[in-house]
Structure formats: structure tokens, C-alpha cells
């Protein structure tokens, strides 16, 4: 065993270039896989921390149903399942500095109790002492942004009234100050905020930490039973399911990248092992001649591949931790909230990454090793091994058929089958392309022979000829195809997601919106603001309105459907539907439904349906259907009937256009004062969305460089293998007069051509794959991707460039070639 | 037809060749001088490891001497750079190897035309020359076959045709019958003798076989790196 291990280690040391290439490919794949496994966990952890925010270790919240009422600590009975209960006062203010307005949430609590669930951390340490009167504690992220120091005075607009506070302390941006939305949180003394909000007793919300061993659900059940007051709402602070789903979505693209990189690694290791086993045939012959069985030879070679996997895994995981740190740091910095996402490393991620590194290495080596071990002993010793030729035509026919089926299937499938067809098509296109590449390479090299003869003379013609039936060239093209299409798919889908998420109001006329309770007087004040153009107030019924057994997730009511249509960019299903709906809205009880809702409910245009809520019911005629990216509303009715039939009193949403949307927004926020609202200009909304989406897309884009690096490694590896297998041929050429200059020319032409074929195939197949992705996702999205020709072109050009650069290695090697050694012996 | 003119086709003077084997330096050729006249058919014989093939490769420009000169038409070619030496190989020298050394993905015609193609010549301008050479080596009916589809003897004929297509001043052959059975080997030697006799082609051949050496005009024996 010792001798065998020594033999394996010597092999690893001797084959330096090849070993490095294989190790690098395993290493990069391990890094990517580790990042994919860990990024979701890390993000989930950060998201949970953010979602908890003020709550800290508290998991249940009790608040009054009516936002104008308060809840008292005594409302919560003394229960064994409760560890701590902390009352929290909440208000809102506006900070104005150099034309920039920042929403500031004001919180206050009994500090002794707050410390038990989420103790605020001061910059420079220390405790909060003598915190009374008009004092305020602000997070460092806020103070550093506006150059505020401890002891300074800051003025906040609370309910339109400027109120000054002395900055008592500056806190770290965590614990109660951590947010998952824009703006800042400020801590005030309880009595001060109570006075401002005019809450003599009671709190806006009570946060409850469960006792040791009590789950959140158990605590909620107990509270629901014990709380006799039905005016209180008991809720979970953190929606774990939502966080987990969100984290899964974030890590999904990384898994996609890992899939590509693992496929490429398999290619690299497989082709390396083909050469390794070929090189080792004399040694295999010697082993076999002295009594080693096929199994023993297989084990020796597989042990070597396991060693590569182990080393790749051992080095790859620490590198993965480094990469993860960098990615998460970049992600945290890019998020507008500026949170720090901690690196969470789980044993599962480490073990899985290591396991996959070793498994991929061993599986990739298995076929060539098995083939070499099974060779007849006589042939091995005599060195008369004939490469087995697969029936190319048969493989090509299968490839072409699979390709055709993969293209056609998603176009003919529908319903639930569409997803299945899409999945099959994506995988089928990749497999079919790999099968068809030898055929394409042969056909193209045949066509190019004459073209190259004209452009580059006889060397061009011979280079093109050399590409025919050249397995290394076809493997190179396959590798290029996988890497380029990975880069294109990641870039196109990434860009699309960016556009789709950040540009929801594209085409919509509104420039700002306010989400909150607004009465007629409130709307009247907005309508009188300087520079305001259009104001569209809307009544909203969330999960309230029933219609023939189904509940609309959101129904809105407007008194101006024409404005509504343009403000929220509604696309009606048929051309004349819009004008018909507008005219019907002013005459009768009419309803327009979203296309998804129409499909879900099975209603048809012209149907008369009955709408029911807790207040009243009436019949409405369906007069149209629409699609819109700017709103997720399912149904719209005239506001006059919303008032008369269903008791709508206050508006809940308002959209506006104005000469200066920012100035209007400031005034609207001011009008809301301490009332809960979510008001944004469209520009603000887009900036927030770009920042959040960009934070996740940026690291995804940077992963494409890993893919390109892996592709470069694989291509250099293939070109080296190609050189090793062709060095006798190169020597033959040289013996009849091929100069180094001519050899360089031929090698570069071969590399350029394989790069071009790889790029061409990748661009074509990526285009088809993107079409499939959007065909399948089409029902869920309401816009099609803009395919930027530049992305395709630059990815293709990058592939060609990598191949050309990679060919430098065989060029240098063939310059140093000892001609006589190569041609003297067979 | 070429004739023996007495002019020197190739001349090696004081050739020394050292090889590094591990940490030790081994002298394979020890101050060897040799002249081959135009039109001569010279055989170099000697035991394995005597240095005969090394001498042939140095004279043929596939290897460089540690010391000494190799002259062709009075010009020392041993110091030529890669570009110049490659041109000499394409235009002035033909090589026949023991293991044929064909390009597997090119057919017979293309393999034969290779030196001309690498020299930038247009294949269509040399159709007649190709037909003639195929006729000489007896492979007219095998012109579209790949080397893999030919017997050993036929492959060696292709190698001879390729060596001759450029009308070289000298043809070097390294054990041209070493990989063939005796009957086929004899046929190849007959062919080489005929080429030398009929067209006055200078040939310098390394061989183990006394039978093969009989075809030549002169036999040189190399022993322990020296001509004896």
C-alpha cells in the first residue's frame, strides 16, 4: 500500500501542468459550490436579524386593531409561557437636510425592559444614562451621513411641527436601529414620545419573548386563548417561511452557476484523465504483467483522482469562505439599508462541498480509468491500442432529433406541461448541442478549408483540415459553448430581472404615490398643493371583497377610470375595451378584472357578478380585463358604488403627477405626520429597487468571471492535451519543413476557428434557451427581455480571445519540442 | 536524370554531439567527418547506440551538433535558424523514417504534397509531378486513401514519394525497412535503388540490415561515435 501511495504521489508531482489545471478546476468548482450552499444561509440569517429589527429576542407582537388606540402591558396576563413583555411606543418624523428628506421612525420604551430583549449598543460602548427630556439617540449610519455629532441639536418635523432634540448618544446600526426599509430609527425617552403622541398610558405595540422551551406558535395559541380583548391583534414578528423562501430565491442563481461550473469541471477532469490513462498505459501494462487485476489498476488510478478531489476540496473551502466574505460584504454595502450580512458557515455546506469535489473528481475519472483497466493485457504491453470509434452518424442523428424536440416542445406544450417541457428543453438543448458539435465542427472545417486557403494560404487550409475529427477541438468547442452560454444566460436573465423589478412603473403616468388612510379633506389639501397636476385617490379593499365564492386579494375603487388607466399603465385585453369600460363606469355598476383574476375565477366579459363584503352586496357587470406591471390589483369598481354599497369612507391609496414630485412628496409626508404611511416618489421607489436588486445581481455577475476563469483553465487544458496528442504530428510536419512561424500560424488559426465555432454555437443555443426560459415564465411576467446584441457579441468575443490566449501554451511547448525524440519512436 | 558528378551533396566536419542523461554528459558522436557526393547512395551501418541515426539527423538538419559544421553546397547549415532550416527541409532535403510519419488525417495525395504546400505552392500546379511520383511508387490507385488504410509497405512508399516530391538534393532514410517484413523491405530497397539509379537521387541511409546496405554504392560504419 505504501508503495502504491508513493507511486500516486510521485505521479501528482511529476505531471505539474496537468495537475495544476485539474486542481484549479476542482478548486474553482468547490469555491462556487460552497458559496452557493452558504450564501442562502448567510442571507437568511441577516434577513431574520433585519426582520426582527426592534424585536430582538421577542417573537410575538400584540397590537391594537385600531391604530389610533393603545395597548397596555397589563392587557397581557402573567403567563408562564412569557419570558419578557416590553411595551413599545412608535411614531414617525421627517428629517430635512439640504433638500433631502429622510423618514425617521421614532421609538420609545422602558429601557430596563428593552435591554432584556434587544439592548441598544452605543458606539464606543457604555450604558444609556440620564436619558430624559428632548434627548435623542441616533444610529451611526444616520449621524455619519449628515455629519451629526453627540451633543448636536437635530430638528425633526413631527406632524408638521419642527421639534428639536439633543443627540444624547450615537448608537451602532444594529439591535433596535436595524431596519429593512429606507430611513432611520431614533430612540426617544418614553415620556417624551408619549407626550408627543399624546399617549398618557399604554403603547403602540407589546413585544413578547417566549419562555425557555416555548415555541412562538405555542405562545401565540396561549395568548389567543387568554386575551379576552378582541380589539388586539396577536402576530408573529418574523415570517420564517417567507424568509426561507426569499433566501432560497437569492441562492438559486448561484446554484445555476455552480451547475455550469461543475459540468465544466467534469469535462476538464474527464479529458485530463483520458490523457493520463493513455500516458500510463505502459505502467498499467507493467502492473498487469506482474499480476495486478483490473480492479487493482482501477483502484490505483481512482485513488489518485480522489486525492485530487480531496486537495481541491481542502483548499477550495477556505477560499470559498474568503469569496463568500467578499460577496456578502459587497452585497451589504450595496443595500440601501447598509446592513452587514454575516458569513454563516454550516457543517452541511462544508461537508457537501467537499463531498461533491471528491465525487465529481472520481466520477469524471471513472470512464477513462475503467476503459484503460479493461484493455487486453497483451495490447497494453505491446502498445497496440486502437481508439474505439463511436458511430458518429448515429450520435449526430440523435443530437439533431433531440435538438429539434427541445426547440419545438415548449412551443406546443401548455398548462402544467409547459414547465416540464421547459425543463426538458433547457437540458435537452445543452445535451443535443454537445452531441452535435462534432458534426458542426466537421462541416464547418470542410467549408472553411477553401475560405482559409484564400485568406491564410496553405497553412490556413491545413489548419482547417486538422480540425476535422479532432476530439480535443470538439471538446474545446463544447467547453466554450457551456461557458459562453452560462455567461450569456446569467447576464441576460440578470439584466432582465434588474429591468423587470426596477422598472415596474415604466409607461405609467404617476410620479408619486401615498399609501395610508386619507379622508376627503386630506386629498383636498393635496389637490391644492403648488405644482400638483393630477391627483387620483383610490379606495382599497384588501382580502375583503368576495365575488361568487372567490376573494379578491385587492379591489380598488376610483372615480376616474381614464386617469387610473394612464396613471397605472393598464393594458386592456382588447383594443376597444378601455373606452367601453370608461363609459360604463360613469353609468352603471361595472367592474374590470385583471387577466389573471379572470382566468382564476373563470368569469367572462359581460358576466354579472355579485360583490359582497361585511357591509353590503350588489351586482356588477364585468366590462373589461387588463394587465399591468404597476399594480397588483385584481378588480376595479367605480368609487361612488364602493361608498354606497360597501361603506368605503377613507381613501387608502393616492397617485399623483406634479411639476416637482419630490416637493409634493415631502408635503404629503408632512401631512401624514405621525400617521402610518408608505409614501414614495416613483424615482425614489426605483432607486430603492435598483439598490436592493443590484446588491444580489452584482455578486452573480462577478461569478461569471469565475466561469470564464474556469473556461480558460479548461481550454488551456484541452489545448495542452491536444498538443500532447498531436506532438508527433507536429513533429512530422516539422520534419517535412513546417517552421515555428508556420506552426504558430496554424495553431492560432485552429484556436480562432474553434473559438468562433464555440461562440457561434453558444450564442445560437443561448438565444434559444433564453426564448425557452421566457416562454415558460411568460405567463408570470408581463414583459419580454430586450436581447442586447452586445452581450452576445462580447461573450462570444471573450470566448475567442480566451482560446487564442490559451493557445500560447502549446505554441511555447512546440517551439521547445525535441524533434528527433518525437519522430524517432512510435 | 541526375548523374554522379563528384560534387559534394552534403559534408559534415568534426561533428561532436553530446547528450545529457540525468546529470551525466554522454558524447554520442566524437569528431566525425563525412562527405556524401551528389548521386551517391551511401549506407551508414552500426550497432544500436553507435550514433549512426544521430549523425543522419544532424546531417539532415533535424538535430544540431554540439560542435562541428554541416555544409550543403558549401554553406554551413548547422547554424541556420528555424525559418531557414525549415526552408531547407522543404526544398533541399527529403526524409524517410522507419515509422513512416504520416499525418493521419490527410490522404495519400495530401501527405505527399505536404512539403510543397508548406512551401506555399499551389497543389494544382503540381498535379503532373504528383501523378508521376505516384506512378513511380506504384500508388496511383491508392491516392485518395488515408495512411491508416494502407499496408506498411504502401505507407513507406508514400513516405518515399513525399520525400521526393520537392525534387530534393539529398534523400535521408532512417531504417526505411526496419518496420517491414523482409519481402516488403526488399521491395522498398528495390525502389530506392531504382530512384538512385534512374534519376541520380543522392541517398544517405541508416540501416541495420546488410541486405539493405547492399543496394548502396558505399557503406560507412559507425562504432562508438566514430566512423571506422
Topology:
The complex is a heterodimer of chains A (826) and B (228).
Chain A: H1 2-14, H2 16-52, E1 60-64, E2 82-97, E3 100-109, H3 111-118, E4 135-139, H4 140-146, E5 153-158, E6 161-171, E7 184-187, H5 190-197, E8 205-210, H6 216-226, E9 232-236, H7 240-279, H8 281-289, H9 294-334, H10 347-373, H11 377-382, H12 392-412, H13 417-466, H14 471-502, E10 512-518, H15 520-527, E11 532-542, E12 546-547, E13 550-551, E14 554-558, H16 561-567, E15 571-572, H17 577-587, E16 590-594, H18 595-601, E17 608-612, E18 617-627, E19 635-638, H19 639-646, E20 651-658, H20 661-672, E21 677-681, H21 682-735, H22 740-777, H23 789-806, H24 808-815, H25 819-824
Parallel strand pairs in A: 3-7, 4-6, 14-19, 16-18
Antiparallel strand pairs in A: 1-8, 1-9, 2-3, 2-5, 2-8, 5-6, 10-20, 10-21, 11-14, 11-20, 12-13, 12-17, 15-18, 16-19, 17-18
Helix pairs in contact in A: 1-9, 2-7, 2-9, 2-10, 2-21, 7-10, 7-14, 7-21, 9-10, 9-21, 12-13, 13-14, 13-22, 14-21, 14-22, 14-23, 21-23, 21-24, 22-23, 22-24
Chain B: E1 8-21, E2 24-37, E3 41-45, H1 52-59, E4 67-72, E5 75-76, H2 82-91, E6 93-96, H3 108-118, H4 127-137, H5 152-164, E7 170-174, H6 182-199, E8 202-206, H7 210-213, E9 218-223, E10 226-227
Parallel strand pairs in B: 3-8, 3-9, 6-7, 7-8
Antiparallel strand pairs in B: 1-2, 1-4, 4-5, 9-10
Helix pairs in contact in B: 3-5, 4-5, 5-6
Description:
The complex is a heterodimer of chains A (826) and B (228). By secondary structure, chain A is α+β, with helices and mostly antiparallel strands. Among the domains of chain A are: 1-48 and 247-388, no CATH class; 59-236, no CATH class; 532-658, no CATH class. Chain A is 59% helix and 16% strand. In chain A, the strands form two sheets. In chain A, strands 10, 11, 12, 13, 14, 15, 16, 17, 18, 19, 20 and 21 form a twelve-stranded mixed β-sheet that branches. In chain A, strands 1, 2, 3, 4, 5, 6, 7, 8 and 9 form a nine-stranded mixed β-sheet that branches. In chain A, strand 5 (153-158) and strand 6 form a beta hairpin. In chain A, helix 13 (417-466) crosses helix 14 and helix 21 packs parallel to helix 23. The two termini of chain A are 33 Å apart. The mean pLDDT of chain A is 83. Chain B has helices spanning 52-59, 82-91, 108-118, 127-137, 152-164, 182-199, 210-213, and strands spanning 8-21, 24-37, 41-45, 67-72, 75-76, 93-96, 170-174, 202-206, 218-223, 226-227. With 228 residues, chain B is of the alpha/beta class. Chain B has one domain: Rossmann fold (3-Layer(aba) Sandwich). Chain B has a six-stranded mixed β-sheet with strand order 6-7-8-3-9-10. Chain B is 33% helix and 28% strand. At the A-B interface, helix 13, helix 21, helix 22 and helix 25 of A face helix 1, helix 2 and helix 3 of B.
